[in-house]
Design brief:
It is built from one helix and 14 strands; from the N terminus they run E-E-E-E-E-E-E-E-H-E-E-E-E-E-E. The chain is mainly beta and 197 residues long.
């Protein structure tokens, strides 16, 4: 088991993930704590299949007097199912979304979590060699747990002694993300930095 911890660099936030790796996939359980737009705790369980393709993501978000759950499942062929619940009255968008809009996506992307950038990086070996990957992701916004399609681009910029630098682009947002030799994020500008190593 690999334990990964990150601290937010744009605002106060922390994340802990326990990852069990296989030859071409992993399972992870994690918790994220944050305060914006209101104090929250997010607990998640992520499973991938061979090729680091998302099989399922189960998420619970909770705060003072409210709780939301999300079950996002991928059939391995580009089709998704999405089930969500909400309890409590808080000024957040509704959880869940239109699973049909995610058709063709292979990966989930849990908002504000550096962990879920790992799947496309590993699948396309961008932590080891030159290349570009264009991906549609099932992006889960945090802490409301809304689900949206997101077109993302990953490009290997260079190899460094500790791993590689990958340019991440989502719309007009661009960040040069540093990953270790295993493809896990160590530095994500304006989001998070690995700590406790």
């Amino acid at each position: 088991m690999t334990v990964l911890t990150w601290a937010g660099t744009d605002q106060w936030r922390s994340e802990f993930a326990a990852v069990r790796r296989a030859a071409d996939g992993f399972t992870a359980r994690g918790v994220q704590l944050g305060i914006d737009p209101l104090p929250y705790r997010v607990d998640y369980h992520l499973e991938t299949t061979a090729g680091w393709v998302t099989r399922r993501l189960e998420v619970t978000a909770a705060g003072d007097g409210w709780q939301r759950t999300l079950h996002l499942t991928h059939d391995g062929h580009g089709q998704w199912t999405c089930e969500a619940t909400a309890r409590g009255d808080v000024p957040l968008p509704r959880p869940g979304g239109d699973a049909a809009a995610l058709a063709g996506a292979l990966d989930c992307d849990l908002g504000l979590s550096p962990l879920t950038n790992t799947m496309p990086i590993l699948r396309h070996r961008l932590h080891r060699e030159a290349g570009v990957a264009q991906c549609t992701m099932a992006w889960v916004s945090v802490p409301d747990l809304g689900v949206h399609p997101s077109a993302q681009r990953y490009e290997h910029l260079r190899t460094i002694p500790a791993g590689a630098v990958i340019r991440y682009r989502d719309g007009s947002f661009t960040a040069d993300v540093v990953v270790d030799a295993d493809g896990f994020v160590t530095e994500y500008p304006e989001l998070a930095r690995r700590v406790g190593r």
